[in-house]
Specification:
Length: 377
């Protein structure tokens, strides 16, 4: 029966490749990988080097490949002569976090965006990091990349974080997205936030041009999901708390892919609104957990503030849950419809499963954007 399971997995992967084929044929990532050069992790990022060496036993074999340069299509608006200016109105702004554990994933995110962008020279990355030096890996892997690194102080949010169903969800850097309106330059009026466990397989300019109307947040919504499960019985039994959603039609949305209108965000003080809900959670989180109003880390405060007030974006821009949610070893299929972004939200990450030779079928779609590999490859 094992051969039947394997055949089923291969058929699933083949069907996904057919769905994705227009994007992949237009910008073949395999060609980009083959033309890459190899580079060793700079000494400044030695922490990550040591972390990976613990798994392989050979730090000298650990390298990232250097991606080729990506150039604009003829119809793209030329970027300003001042290549370092973050205020250039022609730029597409993307914010991602950068840490040791997810560095490999973050590099793949950048690579996938550049591979499929019609105007890659007009993409500007805002890297949020809590450890100095990791930005040098990005600089080495992507010569000529437009980006700026911002230090996010973990102490800014640490006291507000309560325990979650997964320890990974408790990391302070997960909450950096709450502070983009404060961290980024005031001239940055809009930004796309992307998690570090996804790849983009379409032109990011399409997502950038999404109309948000009067909303500060745009994201794919999933109104069929059981919204009540994102909060505890204590929350729903307290009429004052539950009344938060009165007059709204709240739907679940995944905060790993969002388009943010930072002008509206700053004007409405949304960062402070999110913090206030974290304070409510923290003040009621007794040792027994009886006073908690949610269990899922950084997501519920976003839902409390924005659910029911989100500009809907096509589901193709967040095919999430490919990491199996919080169930280890589970493989997920894609949602029906077109695919522009694959998201391995959940506990299973594609690089971990690929390295352990126990991948899910869809993990092979992440592999072409992976720039991590042995020195003798």
């Amino acid at each position: 029966m094992l051969w039947v399971a394997r055949l089923s997995g291969l058929c699933s992967l083949a069907m996904v490749m057919v769905v994705l084929s227009p994007s992949i044929q237009s910008f073949p990532p395999a060609e980009a990988i083959r033309s890459s050069h190899y580079l060793r992790i700079p000494a400044a990022a030695g922490g990550y080097n040591h972390h990976l060496a613990a798994a392989s036993g050979d730090a000298e074999s650990l390298v990232f490949r250097r991606a080729p340069r990506f150039h604009n299509a003829a119809e793209c608006e030329p970027p300003s002569a001042n290549g370092t200016s973050v205020c250039d109105p022609s730029l597409v702004h993307i914010a991602i976090t950068l840490d040791e554990e997810y560095l490999r994933g973050s590099i793949a995110v950048v690579h996938s965006v550049l591979t499929h962008a019609r105007c890659p020279e007009n993409v500007f990355f805002h890297l949020l990091l809590s450890e100095p030096g990791l930005e040098s890996v990005v600089r080495s892997a992507f010569p000529g990349l437009r980006f700026k690194a911002y230090y996010f102080d973990p102490d800014r949010v640490r006291a507000l974080i309560s325990t979650s169903v997964r320890q990974a969800l408790e990391q302070p850097l997960n909450y950096a997205r709450n502070y983009l309106g404060d961290i980024l330059e005031r001239c940055v009026n809009r930004v796309i936030y992307l998690d570090s466990d996804l790849v983009v397989v379409d032109d990011i300019g399409k997502l950038w041009r999404t109309r948000l109307g009067s909303r500060a947040v745009g994201a794919p919504e999933y109104c069929h999901a059981n919204f009540t499960k994102y909060f505890t019985d204590r929350f729903w039994s307290d009429h004052r708390l539950a009344a938060t959603f009165a007059g709204r039609r709240p739907c679940y949305f995944n905060t790993g892919v969002m388009v943010l209108d930072l002008v509206r965000w700053r004007r409405a003080g949304y960062t402070r609104r999110i913090e206030r809900w974290m304070e409510v959670q923290k003040s009621g989180a007794a040792p027994s957990g009886a006073g908690r109003i949610y269990e899922l880390g950084s997501l519920p405060p976003f839902l409390l503030v924005f659910a029911g007030h989100v500009a809907p974006i096509e589901h193709r821009w967040n095919q999430h849950g490919l990491g199996g949610d919080n169930v280890r070893g589970s493989c997920r299929d894609l949602h029906p419809g077109h695919v522009s972004l694959l998201h391995w939200s959940g506990s299973g990450k594609p690089w971990v499963r690929l390295d352990s030779n126990r991948p899910c079928p869809l993990d092979h779609l992440w592999a072409p954007y992976d720039l991590y590999g042995p020195a003798d490859a």
